[in-house]
Write a structure and sequence with these properties.
By secondary structure, this protein is an alpha/beta fold. The chain has three domains: 150 residues, Glycogen Phosphorylase B (Rossmann fold); 160 residues, 3-Layer(aba) Sandwich (Rossmann fold), CATH 3.40.50; 105 residues, Jelly Rolls. Strands 3-2-1-4-5-6-7 form a seven-stranded parallel beta sheet, sandwiched between helices. Helix 4 crosses helix 9 and helix 7 packs across helix 10. It comes from Candidatus Jettenia ecosi. InterPro entries: Glyco_trans_1, Glyco_trans_4-like_N, Man6P_isomerase-2_C, Mannose-6P_isomerase_type2, RmlC-like_jellyroll, RmlC_Cupin_sf. Pfam families: Glyco_transf_4, Glycos_transf_1, MannoseP_isomer.
Length: 453
């Protein structure tokens, strides 16, 4: 299986992270797929560090502040993908919605992971359903205008987070510092509970930060503005009495909640978005409706088993689980696409569609030395084979015929047939199919050297 993964820009990823968490979900997915034997190529900006095969024809990092450079890079990035789309069985778009506008220019199937309901723009892609496939990163993040093939939760890099049984007397909150991100609610919960609050996040609204948040800094409020490294993050999360998520809307799937539970730290979160998908209420934390409710639940947070928090993450948000879920989606899509596939690499060689019309199709077929196709029948089409390289040993209804380069033969509808290459070099022939239905599933295999049915 050959998979192309389109990665978001580094600027996008850093904008959505409050610290350097090491491997992101895309790296974890790519590495996990490679371990399963999948051929993965990662299309991304040139400044992203990765161990996977990297495709980038843009030397300007996406995190550049120059927006014209950014747009130019995105466009160049997409042209590179379009040129090489035919080399892959499937394209996994983890980028954003931009590649969906190019979807109709390629024959390779595409699956897109959508992290947020995003809005009205998704309705533009509804008419392309049937050739585009969508995975939601949470049930809460689904948009009703699209049909989704699955919901797959992002994983975290579990080895980067340490389970800590001993907790300290402080609360912690991670997230971008912005008026809509529940910062003041978290500060109020900490103040009324008499506990210290550690606040960490990128400052998205400098005026709000300087006028509202920063003046409250003191013994009871410690602020880490900007990115923090993974070691400090692990230490802060693991030592916290509880993690506060006081946002009522916004990102429907917050990985920092999962990271906290991976360290054994229970979570108190305002209800909404995907909280019921992320937190096991009363077992790994509490989902609350108000500040007063949060204060009441804080009194019982010590009853939460910190080891159980870690196990919940291991079972639900591990790399292995995410990789397996995506593998099943890939296989399902490729099976659905099989009747209209435009290229394939079966064990005997390869084939590619050169022309595809409603009543006829033209293929170039290459058979490796010493290999042969299955003995098969088609009931909705007839075929015409023209050898252009090598020699073909053709069998039709039990009769064997030898064809040299430049010779051709008709395969009647319903006839049992196969072709074999008994030479030392590859056999290449052009196949012209004619009929009312030309899907790859119009086949009955009578014999097959590779155990296919």
């Amino acid at each position: 299986m050959r998979i192309a993964i389109l990665s978001p820009s580094s600027r996008f990823m850093q904008h959505h992270k409050s610290c350097n968490s090491g491997k992101n979900a895309i790296s974890l997915l790519s590495e996990g797929l490679i371990k399963r034997g999948v051929d993965v190529t990662l299309f991304t900006s040139s400044d992203l560090e990765t161990k996977e095969r990297l495709e980038s024809n843009c030397s300007i990092p996406y995190k550049e502040e120059n927006h014209l450079n950014f747009i130019a890079c995105v466009s160049s990035h997409m042209v590179n993908v379009l040129k090489k789309a035919g080399e892959f069985d499937l394209i996994h778009n983890y980028f954003n919605l931009v590649p969906l506008f190019y979807r109709r220019l390629i024959n390779t199937p595409m699956v897109t992971t959508i992290h947020a309901p995003s809005s009205d723009i998704l309705s533009l892609f509804k008419e392309d359903e049937g050739r585009s496939y969508y995975v939601s990163a949470s049930i809460a993040g689904r948009n009703p205008c699209l049909e989704y093939i699955s919901t797959i939760y992002d994983s975290i890099d579990l080895p980067s987070f340490t389970l800590k049984e001993q907790k300290e007397n402080y609360l912690i909150s991670f997230g971008n510092i912005h008026p809509n991100n529940g910062i003041e609610e978290a500060i109020e919960i900490a103040r009324k509970s008499g506990m210290k609050l550690v606040l960490t996040g990128n400052v998205l609204d400098q005026t709000y930060f300087e006028n509202v948040v920063l003046p409250q800094q003191g013994d009871h409020l410690i602020i880490h503005g900007g990115m923090i490294d993974q070691a400090l993050k692990d230490k802060l999360l693991g030592g916290a009495y509880a993690f506060l998520h006081s946002i009522r809307f916004g990102d429907p799937f917050d990985l920092s909640i999962i990271e906290a539970m991976a360290c054994g730290t229970p979570v108190i979160a305002f209800s909404g978005s995907a909280m019921h998908e992320i937190i096991k209420d009363c077992e790994t934390g509490y989902i609350v409706e108000s500040i007063e409710d949060a204060l009441n639940r804080l009194k019982h947070i010590s009853t939460i088993n910190r080891t159980q928090c870690r196990r919940w993450v291991e079972d639900r948000f591990s790399q292995d689980r995410m990789v397996e879920d995506y593998l099943q989606v890939y296989k399902k899509i490729l099976e659905m696409e099989r009747p209209r596939a435009h290229h394939a690499n079966p064990p005997w060689g390869k084939w590619e569609v050169l022309l595809d019309e409603p009543t006829y199709k033209v293929k170039r077929i290459t058979v490796l030395p010493g290999n042969r196709l299955s003995y098969q029948k088609h009931f909705q089409r007839e075929e015409y084979w023209n050898v252009v390289g090598g020699k073909a040993s053709v069998t039709i209804d039990g009769k064997e015929i030898l064809l040299k380069s430049g010779q051709a033969i008709d395969i009647p509808k319903g006839a049992a047939h196969r072709v074999a290459n008994q030479e030392q070099s590859s056999l290449v022939f052009i196949e012209i199919q004619r009929g009312s239905y030309l899907g790859e599933d119009d086949i009955v295999r009578l014999e097959d050297d590779y155990g296919r049915s």
